[in-house]
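Project standup — Tuesday

K.O.: blocked on the structure for the chain from last sprint. Re-posting the sequence here as requested.
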Amino acid sequence: MSLVSASSITVGDQLPPLAKTISQRQIDAYSGVRPHSIHTDADWARSKGFAAPLAQGMMSTAYVSQMMVRLLGEGFIRGGRISVSFTRPVMAGDTLTVHGAVRALEREEGATRVTVEFWIDNQRGERTLVGEASGLAA
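H.V.: unblocked you, prediction finished:
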């Protein structure tokens, strides 16, 4: 397995932002369309107090994983860890921007664990998710 070189990564590095617009079609594909679901039934979601159907939380987590694979490639697939806190619902029509910054580089079993603090903001600047992810570099 080929790992990205840790010498190309510095604590404090900002990762390139990743923007994603959440469509109802994507939510449907992720959730499976069914009645009485806050994810796929707009009327049901409104009856539960939401302006639109909600995206599954794992969709946002997948975007963080995409950002980490961009940074570390196989090193995230092989040694990836992720911890998230969902802070605000994501709804159909929202545009999310994933941000990340390298917070630590630590030696681990012949490799370097790269830890990234990340956060996701919607188009209104509201934070929808925060957390930390890490993976391996050479």
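K.O.: great, moving the ticket to review. DSSP finds four helices and five strands in the chain. The chain has one domain: 6-23+54-137.
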